[in-house]
Design goal:
Layout: H1 15-20, E1 31-38, E2 44-46, E3 54-57, H2 61-70, E4 75-81, H3 100-111, E5 116-121, E6 134-136, E7 139-141, H4 142-159, E8 163-166, H5 173-183, E9 190-197, H6 204-210, H7 230-242, E10 246-250, H8 256-264, E11 270-274, H9 276-287, H10 293-307, E12 311-314, H11 317-328
Parallel strand pairs: 1-3, 1-4, 1-12, 4-5, 5-8, 8-9, 9-10, 10-11, 11-12
Antiparallel strand pairs: 2-3, 6-7
Helix pairs in contact: 4-5
The structure holds ligand PBG.
The site of ligand PBG has 10 residues, from helix 6.
């Protein structure tokens, strides 16, 4: 026998011991569930690129909100799918109180007041150009965009959003949104800032779901380069100074080091967005028999929490909550 006093395997001997020494535990309270809304009536439409995920008309939100509540998921992030013929170059429909996003917020806050409602603030679902900002001569115009986004944030607060989540990556938008909210007395409406949002290939299925792929060009003049980490810290410090309440990193899995680094450098809660492509990868790979979906999902989401995420936006929120309960019993 080896002369070996230290044997780490002692702590891996049984399920109970492994659970006792587990450094990271998932809870349904960690998750935010994204929901796609559309303009139709009485319709639930599946999204082929995101198996298990649907688009809901406002009058069909009840069932999914009930499921969210039942699984003890604390909140939802809402994304509108707008008919092509209602879009224009400045995203006017985004400032119309009668759009499906506003109706959805009102519905959920009335019927499910305990659910946290988070709205996305950016132009892309509403814009005929499919960009997060206003496009003029092929350029994304920062300050004009921020003016519109501030108005959009106030509208979302007016209809009842608990948090607005600017996902546009324009400069200076957090402070302008904070000032605009406060001016209208929405001092309790929080800002979840997409602080380090990367120009990622993993948003593909989301853009298909919302039909929001940019008509021209890419998003690299506003979303960050996957090569950069110190720049993410710079964005985090700015957003914190500007008054953000929660900082978000997006996507999650290819950016675990960014999550960890921001967590070490802020006292604000840190969120991570496990995006559409990350979810779809697991779904499609498991369908091909390449991996076990439940195990791979738990491993990925645990890694995101282990890296430092306090809050995880994920399309798998309901499945995860279910899985976690099953493991406990
Ligand atoms: C747009 C927005 C995007 C996502 C959330 N908000 C797409 C993009 O920036 O092109 C992506 C979410 C996902 O892929 O799940 N402002």
């Amino acid at each position: 026998m080896m002369d070996n006093l230290k044997r780490p395997r002692r702590l891996r001997k049984s399920d109970a011991i492994r659970e006792l020494v587990s450094e990271t535990r998932l809870s349904s309270n960690d998750f935010i569930f994204p929901i796609f809304i559309d303009d139709n009536q009485n319709s639930v439409t599946s999204i082929p690129s995101l198996p298990g995920i649907n688009r809901y008309s406002v009058d069909r939100l009840e069932e999914i909100c009930e499921e969210v509540s039942k699984q003890h998921v604390l909140g939802v992030a809402l994304f509108p799918s707008i008919n092509e013929n209602k879009k224009d170059s400045v995203g006017s429909i985004g400032l119309d109180e009668k759009n499906c996003l506003c109706k959805a917020v009102q519905y959920i806050k009335k019927e499910f007041p305990h659910l946290i409602v988070i709205t996305d603030v950016a132009l892309d679902p509403y814009s005929s150009d499919g960009h997060d900002g206003i496009v003029e001569n092929g350029k994304i115009i920062n300050d004009k965009t921020v003016d519109i986004l501030s108005e959009m944030a106030v509208l979302h607060a007016q209809v009842g959003a608990d948090f607005v989540a600017p996902s546009d990556m324009m400069d200076g938008r957090v402070v302008r949104i904070r000032e605009s909210l406060d001016k209208k007395d929405f001092i309790d409406t929080g800002i979840i800032s997409y602080t380090a949002k990367y120009a990622s290939a993993f948003y593909g299925p989301f853009r298909e779901a919302l039909n929001s792929t940019p008509k021209e060009g890419d998003k690299k003049t506003y979303q960050m380069s996957p090569a950069n980490k110190r720049e993410a810290l710079r964005e985090a410090l700015l957003d914190e100074e500007e008054g953000a309440d929660i900082l978000m990193v997006k996507p999650a899995l290819a950016y675990l080091d960014i999550i960890q680094s921001i967590k070490e450098n802020t006292t604000l809660p840190v969120a991570a967005y496990h995006v559409s492509g990350e979810y779809a990868m697991l779904k499609h790979a498991s369908k091909e028999g390449l991996l076990n979906y439940d195990d791979a999902l738990l491993e990925v989401i645990t890694s995101i929490k282990r890296a430092g995420a306090d809050i995880i936006f994920t399309y798998a929120a309901l499945e995860l909550s279910h899985l976690i309960q099953k493991i406990k019993h």
